[in-house]
Design a protein that fits this description.
The protein is built from 1 helix and 4 strands. With 83 residues, the protein is α+β, with helices and mostly antiparallel strands.
Length: 83
């Protein structure tokens, strides 16, 4: 019974921690991301990128696109309201 309680408490902390991390990302329109690595998918349909937020050294994001960017390129996030 104690093991189940410990696992339950741990799972709550993990879920709450993920929400706190997402809230602290502070993503707004105009946020810049730098491509740190690039790999072409084996099916040759898209590229897999690792990007990092400009000025950040901790979070590493994954991005997939059919556009061929180079390592070191800066991607700027533009947020638009869908119609």
């Amino acid at each position: 019974m104690v093991k189940k309680f410990i696992l339950f408490v741990f799972s709550i902390l993990v879920i709450a921690g993920c929400d706190w991390a997402m809230d602290s990302l502070n993503v707004i329109s105009g946020t810049k991301y730098i491509i740190t690595s690039k790999k072409k998918n084996t099916s040759n349909f898209y590229y897999e990128y690792h990007i990092i937020k400009e000025g950040d050294t901790f979070y590493d994001y994954h991005y997939k696109d059919t556009t061929n960017y180079n390592v070191g390129d800066t991607l700027i996030l533009t947020i638009k309201k869908s119609k």
